[in-house]
Automatic annotation (TrEMBL):
Keyword Metal-binding among UniProt keywords: no
The entry's keywords: Cell shape, Cell wall biogenesis/degradation, Peptidoglycan synthesis, Signal, Transferase
Pathway participation: Cell wall biogenesis; peptidoglycan biosynthesis
Organism annotation: Micromonospora echinofusca
UniProt-recorded name of the protein: Putative peptidoglycan binding domain-containing protein
Active site annotation, chain numbering: H251, C267
Residues in coiled coil: none
Keyword Signal set for record: yes
Gene Ontology cellular-component terms listed: extracellular region
GO biological process: cell wall organization; peptidoglycan-protein cross-linking; regulation of cell shape
Gene Ontology MF terms: peptidoglycan L,D-transpeptidase activity; transferase activity
């Protein structure tokens, strides 16, 4: 009988030992992935990187510290009272109007407002140096008209430069006389159209000859026109071509007009809409008057 009891104890001890040996974490690849086998607890975390520090978009793992035992109050001892936490109001975030959020204020806000108010035709603006919904709409309209990119309503350097040039153009400098006359202010890089001494088309932007290819000042006459002229030396099409002197003439720009580091080879570059308008108004014999000089040429 003693022998049977000793054998039973030995068998039970062997079973406990085997069960304890299996208390570990298995490699995830062992589940149908092949080449598995038991690994020590925590090894899977090291392989996957889960035990590393959380990334910027990763929530931190909850603490693995064992929970603190709950203390039951004994008889005669009052239960510990939980401290009352007074709810605090969440901090109020400053409200931003949709116009301000979608139309940021630029470093030339007040100056652009003043120039747009002087030019007129772009909507109501308040000259106070603060962006508003009305200012935003007016600046966007101005940027779209003169192809300033992006047209997001911000009074940045390009918008300021274009607005200043247009607002300070003196149309009286062009001695037009009778008939239709195309006028170019080379200094401000603006152009407009006059008829019988009065402004027919308000000043718009242009870009003339770059250094080494200066567009000359003077009075000339359109003597050749072609709706689409091929440039032999530069191998490019010149839409709405109106020639007035020495291979120079009006035509639609083939590059971004407001890239001031480059220029034409003497021609008067126009925005697409302006090129069409000038073409409709011009004819062989129309007068062209250029005054001033492009800076740097």
């Amino acid at each position: 009988m003693k022998h049977v009891r000793i054998s039973s104890r030995l068998v039970a001890l062997a079973v406990v030992t085997l069960v304890g040996a299996g208390a570990c974490t298995f490699d995830p690849q062992a589940d149908g992935g092949g080449g598995g086998g038991p690994v020590a607890a925590g090894a899977a975390e090291r392989v996957t990187g889960a035990s590393g520090a959380p990334g910027p978009d990763q929530r931190a793992r909850p603490s693995t510290a064992p929970p603190k035992p709950k203390v039951k109050p004994t008889r005669g001892t009052p239960a510990p009272t939980r401290p009352t936490v007074k709810p605090t109001r969440p901090a109020t975030r400053p409200t931003t109007s949709p116009s301000a959020a979608g139309c940021p204020q630029g470093e030339h806000q007040r100056a652009v407002e003043a120039y747009l108010a002087r030019l007129g035709g772009f909507g109501r603006v308040t000259v106070d140096g603060r962006q508003s919904a009305a200012d935003c709409a007016a600046i966007k309209k101005f940027q779209k008209r003169y192809d300033i990119r992006p047209a997001h309503g911000r009074a940045g350097p390009t918008t300021h430069d274009v607005a200043k040039r247009l607002a300070t153009t003196d149309t009286a400098r062009c001695r037009a006389g009778s008939g239709t006359t195309f006028c170019i202010d080379l200094t401000r890089q603006t152009t407009w159209v006059m008829r019988n001494g009065r402004v027919l088309v308000k000043p718009t932007v242009t870009r003339t000859g770059m250094p080494g290819y200066r567009t000359p000042a003077g009075t000339f006459t359109i003597n050749y026109r072609n709706v689409k002229e091929w440039s032999d030396p530069y191998e490019v099409w010149l839409p709405y071509w109106q020639h007035f002197t020495r291979g120079m003439g009006f035509h639609q720009t083939t590059t971004y007009l407001h890239e001031k580091s480059i220029g034409s080879h003497g021609c008067v570059n126009l925005l697409p809409g302006d090129a069409v308008r000038f073409w409709e108004l011009g004819k062989v014999g129309s007068k062209v008057v250029l005054v001033g000089r492009r800076p740097g040429t």
